[in-house]
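Allow me, if you will, to draw on your knowledge of protein folds for a short while. I am sending you one protein, given as its amino acid sequence and as whole-number tokens for its backbone shapes. Kindly check, if you would, that the fold set down in the tokens agrees with what the sequence suggests. The record follows directly beneath this note:
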Amino acid sequence: MKPTILVADDEPSIVLSLQVLLQKAGYDVRVARNGEEAMQAVEAAAPDLILLDAMMPKRDGFDVCQSLRASPAHKDLPIIMLTAKSRDVERQKGMALGATDYITKPFSTRDLVATVRKYLGPHEPAQEQAQPHTLGAHP
């Protein structure tokens, strides 16, 4: 069975790009468009890894990360914060709240896949190599 990644982001273009990229890399992808959906998705069926945007409606990614880390069932779940908040203070906050890693937008798709593989390992070889382009930040 393929590892499952939950992409929690409210930006449709980022979500679509990540779905295609991660599916090509051999992962199953589920989507949550806000913090509440992310929490519900994890409770319904825990993914193997979460890509979590910091700035989302209803509950921000920092709150979701902190809530998941407070649950013994999810304390070891890899959470990669994926966000336009690039200041050191936000990175430190994300890591302090329990994020496993922190990637800022815009990011290299190749680097993102490499980071995911660092925590999940390669599952199936990709048919194509990820193109070295970047996905943008919120305007």
